[in-house]
């Protein structure tokens, strides 16, 4: 089934990044501690009644709010008992204030890392919140910001009964904790569009869409839901979607409704059509645009080299020298190799998707990792469904890799010693089988089974 719903207005949540933790807010926090060592030696019992008051969503099991002043290295332990035996460690401002981590303390196993500079400050308090959802998801966010800094879903979640604080590689970290929920700020800034499932307040899919709505004119949108899971949201008449997601456990959509947040008044027109017909559910075929792609299957190493010039560059910008859309069916570790010559002897770029057990994507030149050019991409590949990607090479040496339909690339790197790309090839590592479809059309919102 494919549901098509054309509408003139879409709910957009506020996105606030200018939150300031004030002295008045500090006075409302129940606790304060100054840590000068990296030992979790003081454990605080979770106040169940306080959690109940704080909870912003019925799907949340645990929620805490706190503020930190430190140059780097703030560590928060969330544990089942008064020890590190079964616990999560949240590290904020780690690695000289350049990243955030979620770690399972029992094995010091890093579960997720986000690279973000200047999360902490040595001259002012920065406020954060941590939420644990009933499905095992842990989300850490800056206060006043709806987009989490870092998220991890634990398949066997730990019941959080205690918390503790420490510092790492700094002389002193100051914490205010058990802080109240801050007041709502404003009526929204018209800057973010998102898709949520089951009304969870954690954003699973979102995009920056500045001024996507207007209070002086109607804006025209459409939503399409395909029976194999894809959901496509777009501005009418535009080729690139706002959001494109694939739900591995899709909901059977039988009803729809409209609403606004923060008491904003809005007008919705629906059932729209170019032919001025009434709105209706349209049942069409399975969404498989990759059927239009050329097919290429190879296990591990590949000796099939395709000329880059055979792929037509269909881009409106003259600074793009090579562009290709491709799809991958693999459990993990799929490679797109960009080459100067039709062999592996010359300079190459190796785009490795879903490495480290389908947790990471990286860019290498030759067989040496280009420093810092990787991203954490948990479960980016699937062995049951094609995942669609694009790559672009710009004339200034920039290489870009992204998921089709996403407004943000996975990797974007400018090589100051760029090498020409004349050929490309695919292969799968780790003794895995993979299927690649390439030279695919761009995402077509009306594409159905041929």
From TrEMBL:
The keyword S-adenosyl-L-methionine does not apply. The keyword Mitochondrion does not apply. Residues 48-180, 185-273, 305-441 form the Farnesoic acid O-methyl transferase domain. Residues 1-18 form the signal peptide. Keywords: Signal. It comes from the Eukaryota. PANTHER family: AGAP008648-PA (PTHR36695). This is Farnesoic acid O-methyl transferase domain-containing protein. It comes from Leptosia nina.
């Amino acid at each position: 089934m494919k549901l098509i719903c054309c509408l003139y207005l879409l709910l957009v949540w506020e996105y606030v990044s200018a939150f300031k933790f004030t002295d008045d807010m500090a006075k409302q926090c129940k606790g304060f501690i100054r840590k000068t060592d990296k030992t979790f030696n003081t454990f605080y019992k979770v106040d169940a009644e306080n959690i109940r008051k704080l909870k912003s969503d019925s799907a949340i099991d645990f929620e805490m709010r706190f503020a930190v002043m430190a140059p780097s290295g703030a560590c928060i332990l969330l544990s089942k008992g008064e020890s590190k035996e079964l616990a999560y460690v949240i590290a904020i401002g780690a690695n000289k204030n350049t990243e955030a981590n979620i770690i399972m303390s029992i094995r010091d196993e890093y579960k997720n890392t986000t690279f973000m500079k200047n999360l902490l400050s040595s001259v002012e308090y920065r406020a954060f919140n941590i939420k644990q959802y009933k499905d095992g998801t842990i989300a850490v966010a800056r206060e006043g910001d709806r987009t989490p800094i870092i998220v991890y879903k634990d398949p066997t979640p730990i019941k959080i009964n205690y918390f503790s604080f420490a510092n790492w590689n700094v002389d002193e970290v100051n914490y205010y904790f058990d802080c109240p929920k801050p007041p709502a700020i404003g009526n929204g800034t018209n800057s973010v569009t998102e898709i949520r499932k089951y009304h969870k307040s954690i954003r699973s899919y979102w995009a920056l869409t500045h001024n996507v709505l207007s209070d002086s004119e109607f804006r025209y949108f459409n939503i399409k839901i395909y029976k194999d899971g894809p959901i496509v949201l777009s501005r009418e008449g535009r080729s690139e979607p706002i959001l494109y997601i694939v739900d591995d456990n899709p909901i059977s959509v039988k009803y729809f409704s409209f609403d606004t947040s923060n008491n904003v008044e809005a007008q919705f027109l629906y059932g729209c059509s170019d032919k001025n017909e009434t709105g209706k559910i349209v049942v069409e075929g399975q969404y498989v645009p990759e059927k239009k792609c050329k097919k290429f299957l190879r296990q591990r190493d590949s000796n099939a080299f395709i000329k880059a010039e055979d792929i037509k560059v269909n881009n409106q910008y003259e600074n793009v020298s090579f562009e290709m859309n491709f799809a991958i069916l693999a459990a993990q570790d799929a490679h797109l190799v960009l080459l100067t010559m039709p062999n592996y002897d010359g300079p190459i770029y190796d785009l490795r998707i879903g490495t480290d057990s389908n947790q990471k994507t990286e860019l290498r030149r030759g067989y040496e990792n280009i420093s810092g050019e990787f991203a954490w991409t948990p479960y980016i590949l699937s062995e049951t469904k094609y995942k669609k990607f694009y790559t672009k090479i710009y004339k200034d040496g920039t290489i870009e890799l992204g998921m089709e339909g996403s407004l943000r690339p996975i990797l974007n790197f400018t090589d100051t010693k760029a090498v020409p790309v004349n050929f490309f090839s695919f292969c799968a590592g780790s003794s895995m089988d993979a299927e690649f479809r390439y030279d695919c059309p761009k995402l077509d919102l009306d594409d159905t089974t041929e």
